[in-house]
Design a protein that fits this description.
heterodimer; A: mainly alpha; two-stranded antiparallel sheet; disordered N terminus; disordered C terminus; B: 808 residues; mainly alpha; 28 helices; 0% strand
């Protein structure tokens, strides 16, 4: 581990403001960032790919893609980046903060929307604002870590799932209508019951976890 | 927890009173029946004595008149009484639901205790002293296990594990705090000379504290089932009530030992802690071992489905008894056994066995619970009492105070570690839900102290606390929940989208944790899942199911349920999804122009409504007839469960067909009406009728290539013919093709039949080897023949070409 600027949290109060992390958490994440990037200022896809623990993850590529997706930076740009800075890294991470006790109902709602947006962006790979059947099918296939065996199952499951979304959101479609894809509103609707703000979070530590080398 | 009390339509008020009166009369008669034998018993005893003495006296006795009708009660005494009590308890339970308003105001447990009180009072009036007592042998060995097994088997593992830390905190630390606080303050109270209790030593008070401090699972279950609060709170209180058994057991034995000696050393305290760890983990270990054994056994039961439930019950009970043998925590053993065995056993057993297990568990636990509360009432009236105002009131008061302080203090600490914090409302419900019940009473009953008077004081106080918590807290918790607007339980079942996303989230969060670099919750959970999938499932799950990914298993279960529902509903209704939507599968498939060379998706033409109706009617009437022809079986030949095996078979075969290559020249656009939700499960259910196949006509079964079916996770050899049941479906889809059942019969001959269209349908629709049960198939056969439409100009042609013969 190189000599990390340990007071990056204090140096950049804007970071605290924008991402909602505490200074200690920012410091720890910065340490981790430097580890991953090999003490450089930016991380590329290869850096993330090299994390050994991720090898087992069936949706590894999607997760990595999500870091480089411009839409997750809370700007209105689309497309993807080649490398990300620490700030952008933090922005992505900030989607995974847990709700606090002091949050009001609106804040919780906003947080939920934000997290759902993140998920939506992960599914909507071509960025057109809709999750089409193909894209959804890809998601299910990845989840099933498919060999060719499971492709049929994936297809069925996807069909059933899309059907459900369509039925819930647009119950009275004529036989000639075509349901093009899941929009963000529909997406919100079907995942309403999951309470995303309490589910989609990880515990960010205040104290550093010591790792020698990438773990 | 699914409610054990079925919802009954509230009967008319007057009628219900009538019925209730009748029921009470019946109950009274039964009771007299049970009380009367006591008297008869006495008299027969006399007769016996008389007889035997005369025997000895006179070796050659005089010949009596041959008894045409004799009365011998001793012979059947115990089972008879037990049965009468069980019957009585069940009748009471029935009775409560006949009076509609009562059951919504007063929780059932209260009513049952009142009934017990009445019975006790009644029998005391009659002067009967031989009432069944809630003695500890009965209670711990017979009445308690079913309830705990029911709870453990159906324990929702995910929320339990997610909140395990919190639950353990409440269970262990909370109970300890309660015990010591109550014990010591009571001791202080006892020192007041006015109470007349100075003979109660500190250890006795602590012993009492340990008995009274534990939250009781039976009472919690009984009350919480009716109030339907959200999952988190339910699992918190309920989990606490289950896990505090270990603490209670240890404390109880500890103090019981030591109150004889009067002093406790540090070493004893230390040993107590060790004992606690052994009791808790030992119990879990014993349970887990038996659970794995049960799972392993269930792997081999595919040929003997009838006894599958038995294994579940017996293994669990033995686990409980083994734990009790070593003075480990039997409750924790039972919970561990049920929770461990469940995922594997459910993958192995048949659907019917699953239903059997569910219903038997619910039935036993329901009866047990009823009996427990009634006997509690009876014991209250009968038991030896020693009412000491100060002791009793201070006990009640202290219980409440200790609980509140404990919960608040613990939550304060816990919230530092929890991500989803517990709000004040949550804390209130947790505190208020700390009910005491029959376990405390039995433990008190079990006490063996030299000072009988003390024991009576304790018992009285315990009973009062139980009554207070069950009546006051039990009755008021429901309105309070409403008042505080506590979040209620989500009733809807999980949808496929939610399931997909839950899994997705799991992987996502694990990935993010890995990127962050610290090993959190998700990391370990993921590791365990992988271990489970790689090694454990292979051993414990039979056949192909072991490789089934969870999502697919979920999906299949969902489909299966829907298919069964569809079939059971007589085919007249739509799919069970309560959404009245007209969205069908074609709405989501991207459209392609019809004469496309790759006709994977196509627009399906419409069938005029009148035709649709006719088809529906025909199919429905067929269904009525075939339903009566269900093959009956006796339990020894319950090899092929016709319903299920057939469905499975057909599911498998349908998938086979789906995998086949799409024949491009298949242009048999049979007119297919606008389907209702024509999801894969509907397709399958229709398939079960054997009338039609996939609505995508291009995927016809042409040539039954015996492609190995990788989808068939439930690969069973086809031991018998495809069953005679043709569960039909009045689906708006016309039977557009062959009778699959007939196809199968020829499955050995690789029939290169192009399904339906080209040839004169000699193959498919002239059923050569029809069974008797399939004459009805003839009707749709003719139908299909008519509907077959050779030729490429199928779309528009098809609609016009339907001819219906009247098949009646």
């Amino acid at each position: 581990m190189g000599a990390a600027p340990t007071r990056i949290g204090q140096q950049d109060p804007e970071l605290v403001e924008r991402t909602g992390f505490s200074p200690e958490q920012i410091n720890n994440l910065h340490k981790r960032f430097l580890q991953l990037s090999g003490n450089k200022d930016t991380i590329s896809r290869e850096n993330l790919n090299d994390i050994p623990a991720l090898a087992y993850n069936p949706i590894k590529s999607q997760i990595i893609e999500a870091f480089f997706d411009k839409r997750n930076q809370h700007d209105s740009e689309v497309g993807s980046l080649e490398e990300i800075t620490f700030q952008q890294f933090l922005m992505v991470m900030s989607h995974f903060r847990p709700p606090t006790l002091e949050m009001t109902a609106e804040e919780k709602e906003a947080m939920r929307k934000e997290k759902l947006r993140f998920l939506f962006n992960m599914h909507d790979t071509d960025g057109d604002g809709k999750i089409t059947l193909e894209e959804y099918r890809k998601v299910v296939e990845e989840l099933l870590s498919s060999g060719s065996i499971e492709q049929e199952s994936a297809k069925e499951i996807t069909d059933a799932a899309m059907l459900e979304v369509a039925s819930t959101n647009v119950p009275h479609m004529g036989p000639e209508d075509f349901y093009e894809g899941i929009t963000f509103e529909h997406f919100e609707q079907i995942l309403k019951g999951l309470e995303m703000e309490s589910r989609m979070h990880i515990r960010f530590l205040d104290t550093a976890t010591v790792h020698c080398g990438k773990s | 927890m699914p409610s054990r009390m079925g919802a009954r339509a509230p009967a008319g008020f007057g009628r219900s009173f009538w019925e209730l009166g009748l029921l009470l009369l019946l109950a009274f008669v039964l009771l007299q029946g049970s009380v009367f034998p006591y008297g008869a018993d006495a008299s027969s005893q006399h007769a016996k004595d008389g007889c035997s003495s005369t025997h000895e006296g006179k070796p050659n006795r005089t010949k009596k008149v041959f008894p045409v009708l004799s009365f011998e009660y001793d012979h059947i005494k115990t089972p008879f009484e037990v049965s009468l009590w069980v019957l009585f308890a069940s009748l009471m339970k029935l009775g409560f639901h006949l009076v509609p308003r009562l059951s919504s105001i007063v929780p059932e447990s209260c009513l049952l205790i009142v009934v017990g009180l009445l019975v006790g009072g009644l029998s005391k009036l009659i002067g009967e002293s031989e009432l069944p007592k809630l003695d500890s042998g009965n209670f711990f060995l017979v009445l308690l296990p079913p309830i705990i097994l029911d709870a453990g088997y159906f324990l929702p593992i995910r929320p339990f594990m997610e909140n395990l830390g919190t639950i353990l905190m409440f269970a262990v630390v909370g109970t300890l705090w309660n015990a010591f606080f109550i014990g010591s303050v009571l001791f202080a109270v006892c020192q007041i000379p006015a109470a007349g209790l100075t003979h109660l030593g500190l250890l006795s008070c602590l012993l009492f504290g340990s008995i009274i401090s534990a939250v009781d699972p039976v009472a919690v279950l009984a009350v919480f089932e009716e109030i339907h609060i959200n999952e988190l709170l339910h699992i918190l209180v309920f989990g606490e009530s289950l896990l505090n058994d270990a603490v209670t057991v240890v404390l109880y034995h500890l103090f019981e030992e030591f109150s004889a000696f009067g002093t406790v050393t540090v070493l004893d305290g230390f040993l107590g802690v060790i004992s606690f760890l052994i009791v808790a983990f030992g119990g879990v270990l014993v349970g887990a071992i038996y659970g794995i054994l049960a799972a392993f056994t269930s792997r081999f039961t595919s040929h003997m489905r009838v006894i599958e439930p038995l294994f579940v019950f017996v293994y669990s009970y033995i686990a409980y008894l083994s734990a009790e043998l070593f003075h480990l925590s039997g409750i924790m053993a039972l919970i561990a056994c049920g929770a461990v065995m469940r995922p594997y056993v459910e993958a192995n057993i048949s659907h019917k066995s699953h239903t059997t297990i569910k219903y038997f568990l619910k039935m036993w636990s329901s009866v047990s619970e009823t009996l427990i509360f009634i006997l509690l009432g009876v014991a209250t009236v009968g038991g030896p009492h020693n009412w000491n105002w100060i002791f009793v009131t201070s006990t009640v008061f202290l219980c409440l105070v200790a609980r509140v302080i404990g919960v608040i203090g613990l939550t304060f600490i816990i919230n530092k570690f929890r991500i989803v914090k517990l709000t004040t409302k949550d804390q209130f419900i947790v505190a208020y839900g700390g009910l005491r019940g029959a376990i405390a009473f039995s433990l008190g009953f079990l006490l063996e102290v030299e000072d009988e008077e003390m024991r009576h004081i304790f018992l009285t106080a315990i009973i009062t606390v139980i009554f207070f918590t069950v009546f006051v807290q039990g009755m008021t918790i429901k309105p309070l929940v409403e008042l505080l607007a506590v979040k209620k339980k989500q009733e809807a079942k999980r949808s496929i989208n939610e399931e997909i996303h839950i899994q997705f989230l799991d992987h996502l969060l694990t990935g993010i944790e890995d990127i962050c670099g610290h090993y959190g919750h998700h990391h370990w959970k993921d590791k365990m899942n992988r271990f489970n999938r790689k090694y454990v499932k292979k051993c414990l799950i039979a056949g192909e199911r072991s490789k089934e990914p969870q999502l697919i298993a979920f999906y299949h279960k969902l489909e299966f349920k829907q298919a069964i529902q569809l079939v059971e509903s007589g085919g007249g209704g739509k799919l069970s999804s309560a959404l009245p939507s007209t969205v069908s599968i074609q709405n989501i498939q991207p459209k392609k122009p019809p004469p496309a060379p790759e006709p994977r998706e196509r627009v399906l033409p419409q069938l005029p409504k009148s035709r649709e109706e006719e088809i529906r009617k025909i199919l429905r009437s067929n269904l009525q007839r075939t339903r009566q022809r269900l093959r009956s079986y006796n339990r020894h030949t319950l090899v092929a469960d016709p319903y299920e095996e057939g469905l499975n078979d057909l599911l498998k075969k349908q998938k086979m067909f789906e995998l086949e290559k799409k024949i491009k020249e298949m242009n048999n656009y049979l007119s297919v009406p606008v389907a209702t939700s024509d999801s894969p499960n509907l397709r399958r259910a229709r398939l079960a009728s054997g009338r039609q196949t996939d609505f995508k006509p291009d995927e016809q079964q042409n040539g039954k290539k015996q492609t190995s079916d990788p989808q068939a996770y439930n690969v069973k050899p086809d031991p018998v013919e495809v069953p005679t049941i043709q569960v039909e479906l009045a689906s708006p889809q016309s039977p557009d093709s062959v009778n699959i059942l007939d196809e199968f019969r020829k499955d050995k001959e690789k029939d290169e039949d192009t399904g339906l269209t080209m040839k004169p349908p000699s193959g498919p629709s002239a059923p050569p080897r029809k069974q008797s049960g399939e004459e009805d198939a003839k009707d749709p056969q003719k139908l299909t023949r008519c509907l077959s439409d050779p030729g490429p100009s199928a779309d528009e042609g098809a609609a016009g070409k339907i001819e219906f013969h009247a098949h009646r």
